[in-house]
């Protein structure tokens, strides 16, 4: 890669791994894959706080930080700032942009729907909330499910129709991508691009994280050339230190324990420190919530028989 | 146009016209344009009730009705049911589909954002709520703005970033479509497709309805070949009975009064009947709301000094 930067200084901070993926968060995985496709050496670190933070994943190098909620995403920001760019000379092609829209809109929407609504969030709890106390995890899960339904425009009346439309668009997208890909190695001009990163991330997530009963997963596995594409890229770019070949994707069970990744000694120490801090904060939050609930119940219980006196305690 | 159907029986029911467009609703206009591109003769009728109904636009012919919230939309349903199909025998499905994703996801999102948030809903009030009593209109407007912000994933923290991303994607989409179109008459394979209906609807709406200060409108007008494309299609398919040529789109002021369309004697009688019914309903609703507010205020006001007695009136 260009520049005089000390390449051992690159760090990508994501959510923790699960389901055999280096990071189980669907927003973080594309950035990871992108850096791997670009063959840029980097360290992987994990951050378990703030399950709904929009800053993750972020990329840091010395004092430079690229958050995911700037410039449309980490990948876009890294390209714009010249750190790494797989898409040079591709961006002017109309095909590139419309394929990107297909992947980051229709497929992203389908995956979001499937994680939070279609499979009733079974996987989501594991990814985002497994480190939190059960009550807080449940509360945040319901809040996120509610927000996601609003984001997808789902209401009681239109839920069935919207689901049909979402699955239909995903089907059409898979077919179109399958037709376009054929037996090529990459989606575009025989070289890796950010579109491969986004699409591969979607595929790995759909196949490895979603349960076998998932409609979306079922539709994706029907396109065998897409599965071959994913297996090829996965074994070539994502698995460097395994001595035995990984099992083929189509036989991949849903909850496979993680395999060899980069050494995590530094991030591990950070992780347990942060974890302790977070657990303490979480316990305090839980206690405060419980106290609030108790106060509320006693106040409401007291209203119907006593006069209500409001006191503001700080 | 196969079959033995009596073609004078086709009716498209949409929201009312405004801003020089045959129907001012961005969901209804694509269906109208599609039928015009297909050169299928039909009557146009208007429905002013239920500003947030998802059934509009709907197409009826005798006992057959195609609502917009079935099968992914009126156009898709008409194609599926064989009434009319511009999209038959496509040569390149991936290209077609990814262009469609670009138009119905990125551009639609940008237009929705611009109508409800970017221009602070100035046009929205005119389109949806101008027939309602002011208070109800305002309430529905705020409700819809809130729902739209949720739909677009906007929060206080990310509003600026999301806006940048939405405009950036719209810019890129315009650029890609402009490059793809060149000086052709239609977007794809030299014949009108549903893509042209969707895109033309988006363009007409952006140019004729949004105010001149709109960022999105300005971005679109930068692509002169797109403007020429829209003018050509508009004059060839949408304006049949005008003796003088319509003013060029780029000089189109934002609120131009409507011009010659099909005679509307039947729909007009229906419209005033429905209008009366709706106005009566609206007045009753307004009175009920006011009564509810008064009761609530008096109850709350009485709560701190008297005992609270709950009575459920039906």
TrEMBL record, chain A:
Locations listed in the record: Mitochondrion outer membrane
Presence of the UniProt keyword Cell inner membrane in the record: no
Entry protein name: Metaxin
InterPro entries xrefs: Glutathione-S-Trfase_C_sf, Metaxin1/3, Metaxin_GST, Mito_Protein_Transport_Metaxin, Thioredoxin-like_fold
Domain (Metaxin glutathione S-transferase): residue spans on this chain: 170-233
Residue ranges crossing the lipid bilayer per the database entry: 284-304
Function: Involved in transport of proteins into the mitochondrion.
Keywords: Membrane, Mitochondrion, Mitochondrion outer membrane, Transmembrane, Transmembrane helix
Family (UniProt): Belongs to the metaxin family.
Annotated region (Disordered), positions in chain: 240-276
Domain Thioredoxin-like fold: 26-120
UniProtKB/TrEMBL annotation, chain B:
Compartments reported by the entry: Mitochondrion outer membrane
UniProt keyword annotations, A-Z: Membrane, Mitochondrion, Mitochondrion outer membrane, Transmembrane, Transmembrane helix
Pfam families cross-referenced by the UniProt entry: GST_C_6 (PF17171), GST_N_4 (PF17172)
Chain ranges of the Metaxin glutathione S-transferase domain: 170-233
Domain Thioredoxin-like fold: from-to ranges: 26-120
Top-level taxonomic group: Eukaryota
Transmembrane regions: 284-304
Keyword Cytoplasm recorded: no
Start-end of Low complexity biased regions: 251-260
Main location: mitochondrion
Region Disordered, annotated ranges: 240-275
Function: Involved in transport of proteins into the mitochondrion.
UniProt record similarity statement: Belongs to the metaxin family.
The protein's name in its UniProt record: Metaxin
């Amino acid at each position: 890669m260009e520049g005089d930067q000390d390449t051992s200084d690159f760090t990508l901070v994501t959510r923790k791994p699960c389901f055999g993926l280096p990071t189980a968060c669907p927003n973080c995985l594309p950035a990871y894959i992108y850096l791997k496709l670009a063959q840029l050496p980097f360290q992987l670190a994990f951050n378990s706080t703030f399950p709904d933070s929009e800053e993750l994943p972020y990329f840091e190098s010395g004092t430079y930080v690229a958050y995911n909620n700037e410039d449309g995403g980490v990948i876009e920001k890294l390209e714009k700032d010249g750190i790494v760019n797989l898409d040079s000379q591709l961006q002017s092609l109309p095909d590139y942009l419309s394929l990107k829209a297909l992947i980051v809109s229709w497929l992203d929407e389908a995956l979001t729907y499937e994680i939070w609504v279609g499979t009733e969030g079974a996987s989501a709890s594991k990814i985002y909330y497994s480190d939190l106390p059960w009550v807080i995890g449940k509360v945040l899960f319901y809040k996120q499910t509610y927000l996601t339904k609003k984001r997808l425009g789902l209401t009681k009346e239109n839920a069935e129709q919207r689901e049909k439309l979402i699955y239909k668009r995903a089907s059409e997208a898979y077919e179109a991508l399958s037709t376009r890909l054929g037996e090529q190695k990459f989606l575009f001009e025989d070289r890796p691009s950010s579109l491969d990163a986004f699409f591969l991330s979607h595929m790995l997530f759909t196949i490895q994280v979603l349960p076998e009963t998932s409609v979306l997963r079922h539709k994706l596995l029907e396109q065998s050339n897409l599965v071959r594409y994913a297996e090829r890229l996965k074994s070539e770019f994502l698995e460097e230190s395994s001595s035995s070949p990984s099992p083929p994707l189509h036989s991949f069970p849903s909850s496979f324990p993680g395999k060899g990744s980069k050494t995590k000694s530094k991030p591990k120490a950070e992780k347990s420190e942060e974890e302790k801090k977070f657990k303490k904060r979480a316990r305090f939050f839980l206690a405060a919530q419980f106290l609030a609930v108790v106060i509320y119940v006693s106040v409401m219980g007291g209203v119907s028989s006593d006069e209500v006196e409001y006191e503001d305690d700080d």
